[in-house]
Amino acid sequence: MSIKPPPYTYDEFQVGMRLRSQGLTITEAHVVQFAGLTGDYNPLHVDEVFAKNTIFEGRVAHGLLTLSLATGLFAPLVAGTTIALLEVNVKFLKPVKIGDTIYVDTEVVDKKPSNKYNGGVITFRLEVKNQRDEVVAVIDQKLLIARGLAVKNNVLRQ
Ligand SMILES: CC(C)(COP(=O)(O)OP(=O)(O)OC[C@H]1O[C@@H](n2cnc3c(N)ncnc32)[C@H](O)[C@@H]1OP(=O)(O)O)[C@@H](O)C(=O)NCCC(=O)NCCS
After folding, report:
1. pTM, full prediction
2. Closest residue to atom 8 of ligand 1, CA basis
3. b/e for 77-96, b at 16 or more Cβ within 10 A?
4. Topology of the domain covering 18-151
5. All structural domains of the chain with their residue ranges
6. pLDDT digits (tens, 9 = 90+) for 13-56
7. Taking CB atoms and a 6 Å cutoff, what residues make up the pocket around ligand 1?
């Protein structure tokens, strides 16, 4: 059986399709660079002495870092076929700590053709899991996906 490599087009995504990403180990560098990039130096993320005395008993990754890294793990599926990211809803269920390894289980939950663009809106549910297969975050996101490469001439209906 041959499986087409990503990215996938609007027509290739089918409701119920599930795809698992590669894993990614969260490092000190991820947390420190994300703090620097965003300016979010909350002691929960950057002060080990403070964080040890919290309910997490140590530093945790920023929730938005987990969201961003999960998006990166998902990204190859839609690299080149995305017209635009439309909507993101996320729940953070368990802490992600330095040294944890996350991966993303993606499910296609809905698709609706667009009248305006040559493609349609696809709703994806991304379950972000750790090395114990615990779900640490659930991301529901909608993307406008093209029927081919998402260049202007392909996606704008005449
Ligand atoms: C995406 C964008 C170009 C759409 O603009 P637009 O064409 O004026 O928007 P419309 O409201 O006509 O939406 C286009 C279609 O998407 C659908 N849509 C838009 N947002 C949606 C949402 N959150 N949920 C479901 N459907 C949505 C609309 O119903 C419409 O469907 P139709 O073609 O069948 O009528 C514009 O909103 C934009 O530039 N947003 C910023 C996107 C972005 O920067 N994302 C991050 C980087 S990729």
Report:
1. 0.95
2. 116
3. bbeebbbeeeeeebebebbb
4. Thiol Ester Dehydrase; Chain A (3.10.129)
5. 18-151
6. 999 999 999 999 999 999 999 999 999 999 999 999 999 999 99
7. 84-87, 114-117, 121, 142, 144
